[in-house]
Amino acid sequence: MPKHNDLEQKALQFIVNTGHEGVLQSELWRKLGASSREGSRIAIKLENRGLIRRERELCNGRWTYRLYPKRLPASINSIIDCPCLLCPDSSRCSPSGSISPWNCEKLTKWLLQIAEQESATLGDS
Ligand code: SF4
Fold first, then answer.
1. Which pLDDT belongs to residue 89?
2. Is the pLDDT of residue 2 over 60?
3. 102 CB-near residues (< 8 Å, 6+ apart)
4. Where is pLDDT greater, at 4 or 101?
5. Which domain holds residue 116?
6. Nearest protein CA to atom 1 of ligand 1, as residue
7. C-alpha 44: how far from its chain's center?
8. Would you say residue 74 lies in a domain?
9. Has residue 117 got a pLDDT over 90?
């Protein structure tokens, strides 16, 4: 039988890999070979640690939980259009220099654009 920490780690990794779809609690425990009691305890622990969120869902006439990761790993696509990648000043840019991310208009504009897209996405859901 796997140790609790191993199981927590595996459960978290699995949940993160499901991305925005999430996974039914029962399905996860089946895949990890854990009992539902043990699984529920781990899910509550992960939720209390702020790593996942649980949402009640009716499945085949029974209430269960769907588990979602609270944070997803960044993908390369999320920074593909970052202005720093092709910036001619990147070698001279540093947080303490005169050319700095702190006062860079290109970076600020890019970040604001992402924030606007995120808030539009959240508004849709
Ligand atoms: S923060 Fe601005 S100046 Fe610095 S590398 Fe990025 S785009 Fe270039």
1. 96
2. no
3. 95
4. 101
5. 79-124
6. 101
7. 17
8. no
9. no
Q: Are residues 109 and 85 in the same domain?
A: yes
**Which of 51, 123, 125, 111 has the alpha carbon at shortest distance from 78?**
111
Nearest CA to ligand 1 atom 7: 84
Query: For the segment 48-99, what is each residue's pLDDT rounded down to a tens digit?
Result: 999 999 999 998 999 999 999 998 887 788 888 999 999 999 999 999 999 9
What does the DSSP assignment read for 53-96?
Answer: EEEEEEETTEEEEEEEESS-PPPGGGGTT-GGGG-TTGGG--TT
pTM attached to this predicted model: 0.60
Task: Output the ligand 1 site: residues, CB below 6 A.
Answer: 83-84, 87, 89-90, 93, 99, 101, 104, 106-107
Question: 22 lies in a domain?
Answer: yes
Ligand 1 atom 2, closest CA? 104
Question: Ligand 1 centre and the CA of 78: distance in Å?
Answer: 17
Residue pair 108/100 in contact by the 8 Å Cβ criterion: no
Q: How many angstroms separate the CA atoms of 112 and 79, rounded?
A: 14
**54: its two tokens:** 């649980």
Q: Residue 122 pLDDT more than 80?
A: no
